User: What shape does this take?
Amino acid sequence: MDVRVSVAQPAFDADTNVLGCINLLEGAREGGVRRFIFASSGGVVYGEQAPPLPEEAQKLPASPYGVSKLAGEHYLHVYQLLHGLETVSLRYANVYGPRQDPHGEAGVVAIFGERLGRGESVTVFGDGRQTRDYVFVGDVARANVLASDARLYGTNTLDATAYNIGTGVETSVLGLAELLAKVAGRGAAIHHEAARAGELARSALQVERARRELGWRPTVSLEDGLRQTYAWITRD
Assistant: This one.
């Protein structure tokens, strides 16, 4: 789930994410599962393009992790065609919230929160102006529930049963640090390090299709979500 690991170990990434997805699809086919919901990515699948991006945007992954997510979507489409398995790809933005693991694409929230809670500086890679679309985990869970029973409006293309799950709002890494510091009630000392290979400069998603076809929309603002997340991180 980490872009940096996929860049350093592309075979490991493919073994875990591509073959792992096939194993699950085979299990679903053999077990008579009706619908398979795939946790895709609305950042790495699209790659470096001007946001906010719709589902029909070009697929231009810039990391092995992005390639593996896109491969997973193609396998879903094939299983839909060959075996009649209903499939839905939810292209998540950067998911964050309580119980968050500090690894992966949105782990910055957990990492910043832990360091602020200890009164330490936070590390920003690059200039900090790179943006992400942060979506609260509770909103994402609700999207999965809705997608499990929603009517599917077509299966003829890869994008026909894919839904962006985000907010459509770009937030820079520096802006995130400032907002989290505000929630924590303390200043944030910023330490900069070199930018990392494979990471996008900008990312945000259009979510109109999810509103229209799933009846879903994000309901938790970034500040409220960060407040809940920070309270969980510092609960002891």
About this structure: Residues 77 and 156 are 9 Å apart (CA to CA).
